[in-house]
Automatic annotation (TrEMBL):
Keywords: ATP-binding, Nucleotide-binding, Translocase, Transport. Required for corrinoid utilization. Probably part of the ABC transporter complex BtuCDF involved in cobalamin (vitamin B12) import. Probably responsible for energy coupling to the transport system. SMART domains: AAA (SM00382). PANTHER family: HEMIN IMPORT ATP-BINDING PROTEIN HMUV (PTHR42794). It catalyses: an R-cob(III)alamin(out) + ATP + H2O = an R-cob(III)alamin(in) + ADP + phosphate + H(+). This is Cobalamin import ATP-binding protein BtuD. Residues 4-238 form the ABC transporter domain. PROSITE patterns: ABC_TRANSPORTER_1, ABC_TRANSPORTER_2. GO terms for molecular function: ABC-type vitamin B12 transporter activity; ATP binding; ATP hydrolysis activity.
Amino acid sequence: MALLSVDDLSFAYRDRTVLSRISFSVDAGEVLGLVGPNGCGKTTLIKCVDGMLSPQEGKVVLGGRDLGGMHRREVARAMAYVPQSAGNQTASTVFETVLMGRRPYLNWTVSPGDEERVAAALDLLDLGGLAFRKVAELSGGERQRVMIARALVQETGVILLDEPTSNLDIRHQMAVMEVLHGLAEEKGLAVVIALHDLNLAATYCHRLLVLAEGSIYGYGAPEEVLTPEMLGSVYGIEAVVKQDLPAPYVVPVRPGRLKEGV
């Protein structure tokens, strides 16, 4: 069952079209990877899906309801968003910052159950030892994991993440993706992740959506989408794609000829 559907979505900044007629769906238990070169529209698409930006055309359907008719508190109980930049959160501890993910459910007090959820999320993302450190004192990668933990305690059916692994070392990249992939399958979540690392996307995403110049170039399983032809057309590189491993593996060979003006 699709927890999230995007139908014929288009978005423009003034007279510059950024997204053109984007349609896809994400089922319960599925991780969808958004991939494509810089400037192709990945972040804009995630912000349109979250409701931060209003598309000129098309609609987003969340749990069978049109996002445009939902109150923000309802959206926050159904969909969590992890931005590309974690920010400094100078006045807050790690525990306090993650607890903010419970805001859609809180009234006047924090319950022991809320605190238990925060502690569990911190442990899951290897942050338990940092619970009472100021977020401003953390590295960029640690702050990013804090924001992912905050999204997890929101306990939504849909999670949107914009390049969540960009500041992480390789071990934590894999650990975060393992957590998200495992939660999607175990709890029936729909997870949408914008990624630059194609091999990480191929390993942990059930399907990939390839954006090129604001339009969909490819949409399907990693082994169907990750081809030398796609990599040449979309990324402008010559590459070999190894298909004899558990997931497709992209080996860049050399840059191709860039389009004039790029």
